Amino acid sequence: MNLASETRWEDLWGDLWMVMPEVWLVVAMCAVVLAPFIKRRSVALPLGVASAGLMLAVMAALSSFASADAMGTVFTGSLVIDPFSQFFKVLLTLFTLMILGLWILHSRSQTDPADAPDFLCLLLGAAVGMSLMVSATNLLVIFIATETASMPSYALAGFRKRRREGSEGSLKYVLFGSVSSAIMLYGMSLVYGAAGTLSIYGIAAQAAAGISPLMAIGLAAMLAGFAFKLSAVPMHFWCPDVFQGAPIEVTTFLSVASKGAAMCMLLRALAAFAAAAPANGYLFVGIGVAVGILGAVTATWGNLVALHQTNIKRLLAYSSISHAGYMLMAASVAVIAGRSWEGGQHQTGAIQVVVGAVLFYIVVYAFMNLGAFTAATLLAMHTGTEDIRGYAGLSRRSPWLAALMTACLLSLFGMPGLGGFWGKVFLMKSMALAGGAGFALIAVLLFNTLISLYYYLKPVYYMYFVPDEDERPAFLPAGGGLAMLVICVSVLLATGLLPNRIESLARGYATLYPNPVITAPPPLETTVSLLESAPAHD
Amino acid sequence: MPSIPAADPFSHYAPIGVLLLMAAAFGLGNLLLTSIIGPSRHGKIKGMVYESGMNPIGSAKRRFNVRFYIVAMSFLVFDVEIVFLYPWAITFPSLAPDSELAPWFLGRMLFFVLTTLIAYAYAWRKGVFRYD
Q1: Residue-level pLDDT at A505
Q2: Is B32 in the A-facing interface, judged by CB distances under 8 Å?
Q3: CB-count exposure of residue B90 (10 Å: 0-12, 13-18, 19+)
Q4: Alpha-carbon torsion (A60, A64, A69, A74), positive or negative
Q5: Domain ranges within chain B, ordered by starting residue
Q6: What residues are paired with A138 via a beta bridge?
Q7: Within a domain: residue A536?
Q8: CB within 8 A of A8, min separation 6: which ones?
Q9: Which of A225, A233, A427, B79 has fewest C-beta within 10 Å?
């Protein structure tokens, strides 16, 4: 008898068809690297190949919505393909395409053409890791996906080899990343030791039977790994330096895609725990409270430190830390509300509300951050400064750019009429599900929004109310960049004016794959004897 | 399987513990013995790099050409690849001879080798192996 004989190869081919988005991205990675064999020192060829791969990945992810057969678990349950994961993959690949646009706009002229395939390959590699992260339900896959997303990010952060800030940020990123990966891996080993299974559903079921101290320590250590990817507060020190030193398109990519993927991975794990929570599972509430406190501290810390920043990239870095905090606070409700909402009767309903709100927030956040960074790029290209004080008198020199950037910054703050406002409203609505603890979270969110108003308005103040002393000439920013800004702001207006329609759309995609029936893992000795009884052929 | 009392799962690890103790005792014992009974003569020539190394010139803290590191890294890629090939090669014969999974298993490993070859081709095109 043989372990492998239980799976049929037709099933494996079927599994491969279900992960076509990732397959296309991997194929594109290989093709991009081989492009110099066809045409040396060409930027257009690898760029075209990468865009084609991303387009195919978008279409593959979209096509999985067409039939119910395309959803389910693959590779013996280690990956889950559900509307939630496919929605994020569509968003991620489209966002990566826009990052390519930003790269053409900003870095192409400064990059050696021989380095273009390297950059594109690293970007696609990070995208593969992130799309695996949202599907992962197995501790090993979670770890490998996180590393697949992290490794290219380290290299991307220091891609401009001659910039000292870039190298510094990259080194800090590597050191922080490796330490937090080690902590996460150690936590996983403890959790595996306590639960005897690698599946998060199995772990949740084991935890529902009673959380041992070993498992509690393991889960806390795993949270450290998630916190690193989200740049939540004790693990956030890499974030401002990396964001400042990296090329601006990489900064944008990391600030949105990397955090979004980590958020989705955390949501999936929390949803698994919430679904398994027993009626009197106070320890489960403890998990939720831990995540909630992490989020509250992250948001407050990020906002308070952002007050002093004068470099626009550092300011947006701290702003992204605080936004990760808002999302964490909402995610914590998934576990708390799983019990307290109508006596724990509608757990999956509560989870769907929370996941829908966070998905909506990720979409809005992606576009407002992309817009703010694009505007900062255009400004840096024309004024040569990333300092906020260099924005003086911009409303006269380039009124359109000033207006569009103001719209993005106000949306980040949460101005009514723009998407960011509704993002926060839906987060608060989902927090309210948790009862008393939820209202504390709402209070923290409102307080933080108030603080953030100061630093989001600081660039606006310079743009509109401080006259330019150097009398610099007016300029018209590059057409492509302006077009991207217009796209971002129109998405923000659309989400701001039709919030209910888009939120119900997001909630529709917030369908997590139903938890599989938990069977107790086979005892270790059975597995060993299965392996030993495998027939040897000579 | 030999019957091991199942009450304590850690008893499975007892042989490993014994092995660790034996290894430590062997290593430390040898060190101790050589320092006690071995003759010890030091000299300038004897303290130099053994056999294949370069003759030491100047400080060890000078900067090396980056190509050494790149070659070392590309060597590591293939080195690690072989480490992955071994367990595969050992488990592959345990498949039934007429198993329909065999092409799948072979295909996976071929894909793995292919990705390494792509990396090699990339490094080649990038000029990693050019020494002039």
Answers
A1: 78
A2: no
A3: exposed
A4: positive
A5: 1-38, 65-132
A6: A199
A7: no
A8: B100, B101
A9: B79
User: In chain B, what is the greatest distance between 2 CA atoms, to the nearest angstrom?
Assistant: 66
Cβ of residue B13 closer than 8 Å to a chain A Cβ: no
Partners of B101 on chain A (C-beta within 8 Å) are: 4-5, 7-9, 12
Does the beta carbon of A1 lie under 8 angstroms from any beta carbon of chain B? no
Per-residue confidence (pLDDT) for residue A93, from 0 to 100: 95
Give the C-alpha distances (Å, rounded to integers) separating A152 from A57, A145, A182, A409: 19, 12, 18, 29
- Cβ atoms < 10 Å from Cβ of A125: 21
Q: Give residue A296's pLDDT band: very low, low, confident or very high (50, 70, 90).
A: very high
Strand, helix or coil at A199?
Answer: strand
Q: Which amino acid is at A379?
A: L
Residue A395 backbone dihedrals phi, psi, to 5 degrees: -65, -25
Shortest Cα–Cα distance, A533 to chain B (Å): 10
Write the residue in A5, A30, A536 that is nearest to B115 by C-beta. A30
Alpha-carbon distance of A157 to A172, in angstroms, equals 10
CA distance A378 to A369: 14
A73, β-bridge pairs:
A80
Any domain includes A201: yes
Rounded CA separation A142/A80 (Å): 12
Contact list, B125 vs chain A (CB under 8 Å): 36-37, 40
The answer to whether residue A523 sits within a structural domain is no
**What distance in Å separates residue B118's CA from the closest CA in chain A?**
7
Q: If you count residue pairs, one on A and one on B, with CB atoms under 8 Å apart, how many are there? A: 53
**Considering just the CA atoms, what is the radius of gyration of chain B in Å?**
25
Beta-carbon contacts of A151 under 8 Å, excluding residues fewer than 6 positions away, are A125, A129
Give the Cα separation of A177 and A184 in Å (integer): 10
Q: Give every CB contact of residue B49 below 8 A, 6+ residues apart in sequence.
A: B55, B56
Find residues 72-131 of chain B whose CB sits inside 8 Å of chain A.
93-97, 99-101, 103-105, 115, 118-119, 121-122, 125-126
Query: What per-residue confidence (pLDDT) applies to A254?
Result: 93
- Residue A332 in this model has a pLDDT that exceeds 70: yes
For A339, counting Cβ atoms within 10 Å of its Cβ (0-12 exposed, 13-18 middle, 19+ buried), the class is: buried
Q: What is the pLDDT of residue A177?
A: 93
The stretches in chain B having pLDDT less than 70 are 1-10, 51
Three-state DSSP class for A80? strand
Max CA-CA distance within chain A?
86
Q: Do A33 and B100 touch (CB under 8 A)?
A: no
State the total domains in chain A.
1
* B11 contact A CB<8A: no
pLDDT tens figures, A37-67: 888 888 899 999 999 999 999 999 998 888 7
Residue range of the domain that includes A188: 9-518
Contact assessment for residue A20 and residue A93, using Cβ atoms and an 8 Å cutoff: no
* pLDDT recorded at residue A32: 94
Reported as a single tens digit per residue, the pLDDT across A76-125 is 788 988 888 999 999 999 999 999 998 988 877 778 888 899 999 999 99
Yes or no: say if A394 and A373 are a contact pair by the CB < 8 Å rule: no
The alpha-carbon gap from B110 to the nearest alpha carbon of chain A, in Å, equals 15
Residue A100: CB partners within 8 Å, gap ≥ 6? A47, A50, A51, A54, A120, A123
ipTM reported for the complex surpasses 0.85: no
The per-residue pLDDT for range A427-468, each reduced to its tens digit, is 998 888 877 788 899 999 999 999 999 999 999 999 999 887
